[in-house]
Amino acid sequence: MPAPLNPQLEMVALDAFALREPASKRSYTVLRLRTRSGAIGYGECSRITPSDLSALRVAIQGKEASSFESIRRGLSVTPSALAGLDIAMLDLVGKFTKAPVYQVLGGPTRNQARALARIDGDTDEAVVAAVSQARAAGHKAFLIPVPATHSPNHSATLVNATRQRLDRVRSAAGAGCDFVLAGAGNLTAGDASSLAAAFERSHLLWFDEPCPLSNLSAASRIAGENVTPVGFGRFAADAGIFLDLLRSDAIDVVRPDLGRHGITRIRRISAVAEPYYVAVAPFHDGGPIATAAALNLAASIPNFFIQQIPYPAAEQDRRMRARLAGDATEEIKDGFLQLPRGPGLGVSVNEAAFTEYLEREG
Amino acid sequence: MNRRHFLSGAGGTLAAGRLSGGPARRPALSFCDCSLAPQATTPTGADALAAVGSKVRITNLKTFGVTIPGAPPDRPYVFVKLETNDGLVGWGEGTLEGKAGAVLACINDFREFLIGADPMPVEHHWQSMYVHSFYRAGPVIGSAISAIDQALWDLRGKILGVPVYKLLGGPNDPDGVRGYYVANARTLEDLKRLRETATAQGITAFKGGLPSYYEWIETNEKITEAIRHVQTLREGLGPDIDIAVDFHAKTSPSVASVIIKELDPLNLLWVEEPCPPENVRAMARIARRVNTPIATGERLVASYGVRELVEQSVVDIIQTDANHVGGLTGLWKVAALANASSISMAPHACEGPIGMLASLHLDASIPNFLIQECCGQAVPQIRDKVWEEWFGFPAMRMVKGKYPLPDKPGLGFELTEDALKKYQFAGSRPMARVFHKDGSVAEW
Prior knowledge:
The structure holds two protein chains of two kinds. Chain A is α/β, with parallel strands linked by helices. Chain A has twelve helices and 13 strands. In chain A, strands 4, 5, 6, 7, 8, 9, 10, 11, 12 and 13 form a ten-stranded mixed beta sheet that branches. In chain A, helix 2 (79-97) packs across helix 9 (258-273) and helix 6 runs parallel beside helix 7. Chain A starts with 10 loop residues before the first strand and ends in a 6-residue tail after the last helix. In chain B, strand 9 (294-296), helix 11 and strand 10 (317-318) form a beta-alpha-beta unit. The termini of chain B are far apart. Helices cover 35% and strands 12% of the residues of chain B. At the A-B interface, helix 2, helix 3, helix 8 and helix 9 of A face helix 4, helix 11 and helix 12 of B.
């Protein structure tokens, strides 16, 4: 006979708090999951619709937080909502077992996680300033956007502009730093291929989203004709798409979006990548609770390489993230994030910050 | 003892090096004078992870060869027991048909990977055993890793205080895990009786085999006999019971294709190992030409071992075995890889009870689970009595067509060394050797 539900694990209530950073306007939603005994787990997703929230509230009834895999059965809500629920459920399992999530999931596989700062900026000056600021905060790897081009397929211009930008950030960052070139999926296949060829001997960590993901044949050609490693995945909806890229020899770094897949599905995607000797570098453009989730994920898989995290340029945004989840979670030491050590996600969430930063219309 | 304090604290007070044989005391590697020898051996993995690990330490590793009556003589059980400084123990199984002695020795080769180490980071240990073996795992290393991996999962569950299926995200079904038995009947009359027993017990599926051994091209007589045999299975068991047929790689791709073509109308659950496992393209050729789902995988090790099957979408069902594939860690990764290609999992299990009970935890949590083997029969056999004597519950006996989930922490059973003493190891025995009429070697 099935065992009765454990009140410390039995899920009874789910609430969502949509938050927004004051300066960057980056928004994300914190999920709060409560069990019958009153234990609280937190998750984060990019956004959740009212109908998805209702569907999840129904789905959790009569289930334990440990059923983080099987709860997906028959649920048709957006991947983001499931990702947030997944993280909150694992937080609860960790708190129940008094162990960090990475120990629940078979880790730790490492003792720290290499960090990748996503750099924004329209001009070389802005990009260089942001790199310098992130470098001062301890970052040693940077995701650098390819300069905007107004004349697609005029590759020589784009290659020169990119070379100039990379030279400038390289000298601003100093020795011992590494770079990912971010195509953001909107270059033409020709331009992407020219860039991949031009930087073959620059030892970039990789060239990210060099062309639209839907253009699988272009992706294979870019990866097949050049030794510059390529990364894809921010826009990939499921593990099958990664499998297609892997069996087409079109990918060197899998980049599943934490806000879309949560911890559990990225572990599955990592398992798909492992027999191809391909590294995992999750995409993450959310808040600090998701960063804590990312760190637990990094320490539970063998083929993790680096974790992208937003580097908010504005002081008030950084303050918000620290107010929400403490300073330690996103602190960088010599290019690495430190693993949380407490039970669950290992982060103390400050609910007072919810009301302060609640997303408002307009 | 409150074991909670062993977890999630900073800095273990019990440094690994204080226990004998711990990684900290390992001498610098000097296995090779060549320039490729590792330049640095410190910090070792276990030490480097101490600050983010638990304070539990593995203090001993014991192996057991166990021979019970009534079981096939080629597969005395190979068990491993890991002991810890907090008193908890973990059990695992790496029974490998015909090669018990080799696996027992191989498990002992991994001693120094484990003594003094934290049992929690099972993924780290798995990687170290697999990667640091240098020679990639075949069945012997795979079975040794499997045994240790299961024992680590058993310990992890006990340390955390939950059954392993809860660490894996299950259960899909709190009533248990769907299974099948061996169809131990050949004549129409016996099969009809078996059908009645099955209906009474709620059993939903059986597996049968082929009646002979086959050369790489076969005669009309042998092919017709094989087809009639399976037709009789369907006729006797009726249309509502699922039937799988194990070709056991006795057939070549050519002969298998001819036979399966005529089995297509029987709507079998699957045909298993229609040819030997080394050649994925050969199996793909069979799958292309028939409609019956194809299952394979019991002899494959790690997700690396099934990668080609999955990426070429050759089969419908993968059957890797928790005792060979690399334990629950290996089986979970195979399942994740298979799921990315919409392939179902029907884990193989025809050895001892520990690997089977371990498999249930995984079955209960993966999204692409189909059905679990146990090689039992509708009527309990001697082995079932021995297992109940060991564990105090009828292990791997189905209730209404499902194996109940073990609900205690870890893999969900208690086992003592005393219980095994009655069944002393009678040594390795080879698998059966069969030959064709002309004396040439036959697959079975």
